Fold this protein.
Amino acid sequence: MIRFFRQIRHRLITENKFSKYLLYAVGEILLVVIGILIALQVDSWNEDKQNLKVERVFYSDILGDLNKDSLKLEGLTQFYKNRIENAGWLLRKVRTPGSIVDGREIGKHVQPLYLGASSITYNSTYEASKSSGDFAYFRNKDILKNINQYYADFGELSGILTATTRWLETSLEPILSTYPENYITAESGSYVLTSELDDLSELFEFITAIEDTRDLPLEIENILKRPEFENYLTGDLGRSFNALASIERRMQRMEMLKMEIVTYLEELNQQ
């Protein structure tokens, strides 16, 4: 093809047909420009196609992360409901002087309060795509904004989880540190275990297997009379109810976000 155009150009020059040669040159330039434009358009189309593929994979992976978050939040919900049940039971004992107090029964409800929950959200897909700069090529900026807000809002729940652990370490443990923990049994352990903490079963089985032959008295009445213990229980209940409200708000935002992503993925799959 190139040889063909060269022959035409050479014949026009040798025949001194300058006007025709000029017209030919313009036409040749136009053909080159059109070729470049077509090549650029093809490159742009291929780039758009690749960006669309990356965006589709991103949202599919985000749905996977949100499903993991959902399981985590369900575990935290059970964890805090468990705390409310046990702290409430103890608070009723504190505020009912003269009621019959059984040390091991008290232990079943004290032991679960010793544990905190981990502060985790599954955002690896989001952070990886954010770092790579992929977001600049994504079409739906509204969903990206909502995803960003969802992960940014985790600080609220994370703060409650951290406070729960901090207060049990600085308040509950000092109150009970002078008393032997011989109320820990497999039965008390079952009160601790939730879907969030089910990996502790071996711990309680191990402790229970070590028989305590000391027959130490459980001076639980003294603990129940301490104002610090009541203050801890009311604070723990406040944090637990606050956590459940935060979890519920997060789960609602998550479900709305999932619906947005699923709808958008259906649109992308049709393209």
Remarks:
- The radius of gyration is 34 Å.
